[in-house]
């Protein structure tokens, strides 16, 4: 089943998403009362496509540092976009975060079968051993996508999938099997329900989404990288 994600628009009374008006509000607003995604909605100026073109990256994921950004010969619009990128990196670092600016020209997915998928293009949640959130922004190319928790179920909880995994595991459905799922990240991946309505994170918006960690007050935000399509342009993504 292929689900088309809609472009993100400010929710009216969305139980999971809250729109904020500044970086300070994005960082300081607690994730609680069921809200597990905050969006600092922005309309960014500048030509981010020029930056992607001038980077001339190959296939796969290329991390871009400030030195490489500053070395690019850019038009006025490209310089405006570069300044946005540098400012966003500085904002996140000033908040004790470790952002990475990546130019993504396709993913190398080592997938043996749909049963064992744990790649970023599969619906999933991020996890941590301590309190932590994920920040991300797509500046160019296909945007990340989200899925509300009520519209999905863990893939390992689908009876047919669980039965196949149990057969592969070769044991009983107990603590050992749960450890096996956890150690292989299989319990972090999800399957949309038939009436699911995925949404696009959009371009230029900076998001903060909840991860799965002990005693988290909200469920983790389900999301994925967009599917790679033939002829698709590279993505420019900030993630922390």
Question: Topology, please?
Answer:
Elements: E1 17-20, H1 23-28, E2 37-40, H2 48-55, E3 60-63, H3 66-70, H4 76-94, E4 100-105, E5 133-140, E6 145-147, E7 152-154, H5 159-169, H6 175-183, E8 190-192, E9 199-200, E10 206-210, E11 222-224, E12 235-239
Parallel strand pairs: 1-2
Antiparallel strand pairs: 2-10, 3-4, 4-12, 5-10, 5-12, 6-9, 6-11, 7-8
Helix pairs in contact: 2-4
Average of pLDDT:
90
Order of the strands making up the biggest sheet: 1-2-10-5-12-4-3
- Shape summary: globular
Proportion of strand residues: 15-25%
Percent range for helical residues?
Answer: 10-25%
| Uncertain spans | 1-6
Which secondary-structure class do the elements indicate? alpha+beta
Order of helices and strands: EHEHEHHEEEEHHEEEEE
| CA(first)-CA(last) distance | 30 Å
Per DSSP, the total helix count is: 6
Q: How many DSSP E strands?
A: 12
**Main sheet, how many strands, which sense, barrel?**
7 strands, mixed
From the alpha-carbon coordinates, what is the Rg to the nearest angstrom? Answer: 19 Å
